[in-house]
Amino acid sequence: MDSTPIRYTSTSYLPNTKYQISKMLTHFFILQKVLPRRIQQKYFDLIRRKLLEQINFIKSRASKRTLKNSITRTFFSFSYKRYRFHFGIYIPCEHACAPGSLNPFTWCHSPSPFVMSLNRRACGTHQSEFSRTEINHHLKPVPDSDPGFINSKSSHANHVYDLWQHRWKNDIFSNRLGIRYNVCYAANSSNFVRKHPGAYIYRKHLSNFSFDLSSNPVTKRKQETRFKRHCARVFKNINPTSRTMKEDKLAAGRRFRFLFHESQHIYSPLHHLKFKRFSIGKFLPDPDDYTFNIPYHSLKNSSITPIVGSQPSTSYRPSGANTIPHYLNAEEIAVLGGSLEPLKRTPVYYGYNPVDPSKVDSSYHLQYNPIQPDLPPSIEIRQSNPLDYDSSTANAIGTTLKHYYRRAMLTRQITVWTKDYHKYMKQPPPPPKPSKKKQHHKWKKWMEKHQDYEDFMSKPYAPRPYYPPDYHTDLFGSPSYTSDETKTVEYRPNKRDTLTNSSASSQ
């Protein structure tokens, strides 16, 4: 584009800013050969208005007296097809040129792409020097309230010790996810430290999870979407058809330090604070071996018995988190009344598979806290045993525990396909492929479900290869061996025979 200057005549002694920008834009549109006349007339007012706003933004930023590193660009971009233009306000650099340049001892007049507070600016050539001399690298200086504070490991360890000693608790919330939980510091018990020399001194305890969604419906919907996306990222490797899906989710939450349920709590160790490995003659870490306070220095006068691997413990207090000293019977539960959380009752089915009825349902038990063993025990809920629960369910459907998971999976898949059939197949056949995009999406979704149902319906009635009498094929097409014992358990005298009734499925 030709850069020859052009002269415009004005009757005013000093033309205003809008007039000057209008003439410069007209001069630009006359000389360029990319933008057609239609685009020039359409975006002329927009570009002029943004240039006027850019002048106000630059003045506001340059006049600020705070020493911050926020910047305001002196230009903006305008794109048309594959062409890009930059419209901006000329702000000279005004840095002293180097003595070795062509114009020594002069000021730099190159345009500056940004402006900062206190009218700080620099062009591309002087930005490295500008970063060394003008940028504020101490936005958060160390407060002078405690001039004797030494930034060291011992100081931080003493600070964490004080937080643990005073039972400090902090309320953490996330406006992005709409959640809230509490964080506090916990120390490992003496039994754990004796069994694991060199263990972590402290752990962060994350608990009391709750949702704190916004009252704005739009913000609430965004928070729920982000939280579900985070859950999907944490639980992406979990099998949705697994019987232990809840336990798998809790394990994934502990692994990724992620809270998603109200009854969940997580311990996260502090990796930078560990105990030193002490000798066998010492039962607890010696406080004299450390340059900072440790939680167990106040227990050095306590009577602690050495641990012998072959000798059972005679202490009445539990030493681990999984020790269950006492179950609550029906009379004790009745005395407590409505203060306990109601338990879900599951019917017990007896049959071929052995079942312990006391382990099918959940039950209450007294649990001591291993972190604070001197406190009275709390009432906890013991979940049902998965093996007894599956055995009871296998007796209900009349099969063995070995074939229970396969038949449960088959029943679940048939149920899902049946629901899809009643949801999509009740409608009349779809019309020809529509032209509108929204209707095309519905038509395509209907056809996919229709094809899935046809594939499913063709499998049970399709011709099957011959297998010996002891084998059969399941829904997924793989042969499965059925023993005589399983045949006896699964025998149905009133079930139709597939040899005489050809329309019945062999499943």
Automatic annotation (TrEMBL):
Span list, region Disordered: 425-444, 477-507
Record-annotated membrane-spanning stretches: none
A Pfam family reported for this protein in Swiss-Prot or TrEMBL: DUF8211
Coiled coil: none
Domain DUF8211, residue spans: 156-294
Matches recorded under InterPro entries: DUF8211
Biased composition range(s): Basic and acidic residues: 484-498
Biased amino acid composition, Basic residues: 434-444
Protein name from the UniProt record: DUF8211 domain-containing protein
Taxonomic classification: Eukaryota, Fungi, Fungi incertae sedis, Mucoromycota, Glomeromycotina
